[in-house]
Design brief:
Strand 1 and strand 2 form a beta hairpin. The protein is mainly alpha-helical. A three-stranded antiparallel beta sheet has the order 1-2-3. A two-stranded antiparallel sheet has the order 4-5. Helix 5 crosses helix 8. It contains 13 helices and five strands. About 7% of the residues have low confidence. The longest helix is centred in the first third of the chain and has 20 residues.
Length: 294
């Protein structure tokens, strides 16, 4: 299923680059693919994401060659990047997160929503954006949120801290027929559901704009919040085993047995340490003001 989604996303991006104009595989050229690579770079995609798109298109092209739909293989992908670049974990410093918390966004509700979902990810133990997007109102009970990670299938229960509850109360979808907690995969204005890939692209674009506005050295993205929570937890003396349990990582052997013994109170205590380190230097009135505008 994931492979099919990758193919679809790559083809959709190439179609957008071509402005909807069809093209035969035999018309592909090295110049065109380099232009496509430059187009993707200009839209802020990472080298590895661009490489993924190129590999998917190359596979489709090679299939056409194998099926003799193309008489001469012109190797149009030979001058674009199709390898894997080692990625470095990007995390925000504590003062940078505090700046993000206090930044006023009264006049830009779209950026405010992206910022608040980013902070929600941190407040909820580095919850991945894909899991946030698919959260439902039924998963909240007695001040706790229970969900299963879409990447690993691991079940997690998180004690909802007050700062995360403020975000939930502000953005919770009110329509009774919509199961989603947040309006990420659901548009309240049209009543229509959205594809996750489109929602992710919109979210990252807004975070990128927010990063530029604030002059951050580390660009915000959907995965930065997750790595940031882990780093903040370590800086606050939380043991790695607790961090792994809090983030829902998969483990085997002795580690898995040890992590299984960690109760929800231990993990919630670790999360409180992270949140206190972020909110401690701010005044209560300022903390409440950050979510006072729609």
């Amino acid at each position: 299923m994931k492979t099919a989604e990758n193919y679809a996303t790559a083809l959709e991006s190439f179609r957008f680059f071509r402005e909807g104009k069809d093209i035969s595989p035999r018309e592909l050229s090295t110049d065109m693919m380099r232009d496509f690579q430059s187009f993707l770079t200009s839209r802020g995609l990472s080298r590895n994401t661009i490489s993924l798109y190129m590999r998917q298109l190359r596979a489709a092209y090679n299939y056409a060659v194998d099926e003799e739909m193309i008489a001469v293989d012109r190797k149009p992908f030979r001058k674009v990047f199709t390898g894997m670049e080692k990625t470095r974990k990007r995390t925000l410093r504590m003062d940078t997160v505090r700046k993000l918390i206090m930044y006023r966004l009264e006049r830009d509700s779209a950026l405010a929503f992206a910022r608040d979902i980013f902070l929600f990810s941190i407040y909820m133990q580095g919850m991945a954006f894909v899991d946030i997007a698919h959260l439902t109102k039924a998963q909240i009970d007695s001040g706790r949120l229970t969900y299963r990670r879409r990447k690993t299938g691991k079940g997690l229960t998180i004690v909802i801290p007050p700062c995360a509850k403020v975000i939930i109360d502000k953005y919770k979808v009110s329509h009774p027929d919509c199961p989603y907690l947040f309006p990420i995969l659901y548009n309240p204005k049209t009543g229509k559901t959205l594809r996750f890939t489109s929602a992710l692209r919109t979210y990252n674009n807004r975070l990128r704009r927010l990063s530029q506005r604030l002059g951050f050295d580390v660009p915000l993205s959907s995965y930065v919040a997750r790595h940031t929570w882990a780093s903040l937890a370590r800086w606050n003396g939380v043991e790695d085993t607790v961090i792994c349990e809090a983030m829902g990582h998969s483990h085997v052997g002795v580690t898995a047995i040890y992590l299984a013994s960690l109760d929800i109170g231990t993990v919630a205590s670790a999360n409180r340490k992270v949140i206190r380190s972020l909110l401690k230097p701010t005044r209560k009135r300022e903390r409440e003001a950050q979510f006072s505008t729609s």
